[in-house]
């Protein structure tokens, strides 16, 4: 279980399309086998943490503003805000982000990269800003 800003379908499709143009051979983005990619910005693992301004069920938006990639995973960096008052949506991650893609084995049968590895990305490169919308939810 985790608490996240779940992107709406339009935002997920947008990120999936954007990722397609950036993928090296052998990488995958959001699909039936990887539904968690281009899907959400993690706020925290488990239920909301005491003291964090987490408003489950509330609409929010994120501004994609950077991208990072290593040899296993690719993500877009972002800032997130509640739609009602523009206050920041918190996250326990050092860099707020949405994982776009992961590397698979040459035969396409197993993951080489894992989505959680996007937490360790460095070298975030600025990108043109894009606004995407979603809802804060607790997910399984």
Question: Can you offer a commentary on this structure?
Answer:
The chain has 140 residues and is mainly β. It has one domain. Helix content is 9%, strand content 41%. It contains one helix and seven strands, in the order βαββββββ. It has one helix at residues 9-20, and strands spanning 2-7, 27-28, 40-45, 59-69, 73-82, 97-103, 125-139. A seven-stranded antiparallel β-sheet has the order 2-6-5-4-7-1-3. A hairpin with a 3-residue loop joins β4 and β5 (73-82). The longest helix is centred in the first third of the chain and has 12 residues, at 9-20.
Compile the SSE list and pairings.
Layout: E1 2-7, H1 9-20, E2 27-28, E3 40-45, E4 59-69, E5 73-82, E6 97-103, E7 125-139
Antiparallel strand pairs: 1-3, 1-7, 2-6, 4-5, 4-7, 5-6
């Amino acid at each position: 279980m985790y608490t996240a800003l779940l992107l709406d379908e339009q935002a997920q499709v947008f990120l999936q399309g954007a990722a397609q143009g950036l993928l090296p051979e052998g990488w995958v983005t959001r699909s039936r086998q990887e539904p968690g990619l281009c899907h959400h910005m993690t706020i925290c693992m488990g239920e909301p943490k005491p003291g964090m301004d987490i408003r489950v069920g509330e609409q929010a938006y994120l501004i994609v503003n950077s991208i990072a990639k290593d040899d296993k995973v690719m993500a877009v960096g972002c800032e997130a805000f509640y739609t009602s008052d523009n206050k920041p949506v918190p996250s326990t991650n050092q860099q707020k982000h949405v994982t776009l893609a992961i590397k698979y084995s040459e035969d396409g049968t197993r993951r080489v990269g894992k989505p959680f590895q996007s937490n360790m990305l460095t070298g975030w490169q600025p990108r043109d800003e894009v606004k995407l919308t979603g809802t804060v939810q607790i997910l399984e």
